[in-house]
Structures are given as C-alpha cells and as structure tokens.
Amino acid sequence: MTRPTMLSIKILTIILFGVWTTTVLAEEKEAAGEGFIHGVVQILAYDDDDLITQGSGIVVGDNMILTSHHLSHKAKQMRVRDAQGREATGEIDVSKDDFDVVLLRLPSGHGLGIAPAQLSLQDIKAKESATLMGYWKETMEDKRSGGLFSAKRPTFRAEVQVEVQKVTGFVEALADGYLDIYAAMGRGGYGAAVLNDCRQITGMIRLAPDINIKQAWKRHQPSLPLTALSLGSLKTLLLSEGISFSVAEAPCLDAVALMKSEQDALAKKQAALKEKLTKVDQEKKAAEEEAEKTRQKAEEDQQKSQEVLKGMGQRLQENEGTLQDATEENAMLQTYAVMAGGLLLGVIILIWLKKNSRIKKVSEELEEAEKSYHDCLLKGVDSNGNPVALRISGRDLMRSAQGLIIGRNPENTGLVLSDETVSRNHARIFVREGDLYIEELGSTGGTQVSGIILQPGEPRIVSDGDVLSFANVHLDLKVLP
Is the pLDDT higher at 151 or at 126? Predict the structure, then answer.
C-alpha cells in the first residue's frame, strides 16, 4: 500500500471518531399512562329490556368488577360495557349494602377488552388533587315519562354513555374509611374510580351515607362534597372476600416530593451534560493534536515527494521514456495533499459546530427548568347555588403555551364546569411574564373579573382574591403558596 493511501485512511478514521464522540444522547420519553382506561368500565342495570339505571365500575381482579350497590336495585340483569362498546353479563358475587358496594363476576371468555386496575400503595391525603374517571352525562338526565310501573323506576331516563369521562378535583378530608372530594361529576359517576397523580386507584365514588334508594332514584346531579370509599376500606373488603388484586410496587409521590424528584433528576442531567462537555473539550484537544501531527506528516511527505520529483527531473534528461510516469505520480501526490488539507479543515469545523450546539441545548434546558408558577384554587357556587371547586396546577399552566381552557368541554384537561349557563369553551387562563391572565373566548354568558365585563380577545391580569364569574358560576380566586 502506498504512503498517500495510508494517509487518506488515517484522516477518514479521525473524521469518523470525531462524529462518534460528539453524538448527543436521546431524551428520555415520558410515560403516558393512557392505557388505564381499560381498568374503568360502564355498568348497565336492566329489567328485561328496560335500562333502569347506569353507572361506573372498576376492574379489580380476574373477571371481578367493583361498583356501587344501589345500581343493582330492582335489576334483573347487570351488564358490563368496555370502552370499545363490547358488553358481557355479570353475576353478583358479593353485596355490601352498608358500604354501597357490590362485586360482579364475569364469566370466563367474556371477550371484553379490560385489564385489572392497580391499587395505590398508600391512601391519598387531604388537600391533594384527585382524578375521577367513569361514565356519566355532563348535564342533567332527561325525565322518565310516567306510566303504570313508574313507581318502580327512577325519575330519570338512563342512557348508555359512549365515552369515558375524566375530571380533576381535590380531597377535602379522609375519615372513618371515607373520602370527601370536591369535583364536578354527573349522576352516572357512582362507582367511578378515584385516582392519584400516578393513575393508581385510591378509592371509589359511592352514595353519601345519608342518601337512600328513593333519593338516589330522583333526577339529580351529585351534591358536593362527593363521598368515596377509601383505599383502606377497598383493600379490607377485597381481602375479606378472598379477591386477589394488583398493588403498586412503590408509593406515588405527592406534588412537593414529585417536584423535588424532578429537580434532583434535572441536577443529575445537568451534571451529566457538564461532564459530556468536558469530555468533548478533551476529545477536541486530542483531535487538534492528532490533526497537527497529520499536517506535519503531510508536509514531510510533500517535501519527500518534491525531492523525488527533483530526482525524476534529473533522470528525464537521461531517459525521456520515463517522463510521462513521473508527471502522473507528481499529480497524484498533489491531489492527496489537497484532500488531506480539506479533510483536516472539515474535522475542525465539525467539532466546533457540535460543541456550540450542545452548549446551546444545555442553556435552553437550564432556562426551561427555572420556569414555575403557583397552584390556584377556584371555589364558589354554580347557577343553582351548589358549591363548585377547581384546582389549577401551576406546572400545567407553565407547560401549556396556550394556557388552559375553562368550560363544559370534558377535554379541557380537567377544568370542567358542568353548569348549563357555561359554554363548552368559555374562557382561557394562562401565565405571561410571571402574571396570571384570564381571557373571554366569545361565550354566551360572558366572563367577569370582580364585576368588570371582559371583551373577547382582551385578556386581563387577575390576582389572589378576585371574583371570577363564568356566566352564572361565581368563583373566588386563591393563589396557593
């Protein structure tokens, strides 16, 4: 192998080494957790072909469904419906009227697309946020028409719900095996799952202890606070009946611990990036030293080539037949010299560009990590005088460039006001340059801040103590510490 060929291979090796050492590691992918919907089902109670009532249920074990006991009153058949609309009949296996709990057992090979939900390792605490997931209608259900057997039926007309609903509230208290929860939920939410921030079961919505079946059969929206059977009560019930269930391996961190965990992870990531930058600098220096050696070697080779050409020129006078061969060899050496210089310059430029790109990325990640805002609490009454409460996550506000939408639309990340005077997309709340804004979105009922009417497209700064009115729903704003 000739010397120019060896030189080209060495330069190519340097380039590949530089590219490999400056590759940035891929970002970690956040777990979505959307598969939990398979742990929540819809319960349909029938008397022959007549749908008496409808509610929600939780898959707690193999072929076992946990739901609210009062849904089975006067029912001859209990049907379980999954998110894809498939149905199977369940038989009552355990009935606990005093807990408002019933366990349905599905037959083997039922064909539903369901999987058992995972129970949390620890009870949810007071003042923590909680997510309710189940099947209910956003507005009040239609009245059932009277008839010969009207006394044996609820006063509302139950309907099969196509989509699972999700709403976020907060826990007011935990006592005597029950949870008091503030969240806007429809009547079909009895039997719904109460979830923590890790999508783990921490309770089940049930009738309030002072509500009897006659009251439950009236056309209504559940009053606040909602009552839920606690995690401890659920585990005790399942263990006493010999029902196996899945439990999380580790506790779910609360908001403060979660923030600290994220900060620790960010600090580790920053330290790792700093270490990578140091390594890149070292590798750049080593590459520059190697490039300098290559340049010196190229100069030596070029000098030797010139000496060879000089000797060949002297021999041309003696042998004209060797002139053409000498000319071609000289041209090849010059070509290799030019290639060596170009490749060396490319290596240096590539290393400089990669280093600047990684420094810019670290700066952007540090700037993003410093962004934060307080949680907010909206608490007041709806158009019927019923209490309403919404807890707004400061982290969610900062992470959403467009802010969060408030209205009756269930897709508004949990900021749902189930009031007939409120529009589906009523108003937008967002943070800009450290200030909290509210913006009217052209709703029917309008938006006010402490009595001041907002015009669409004209956001207004709001602060702690302001009264926010969405149509006939009036809420006090509290910025939490």
Answer: 126
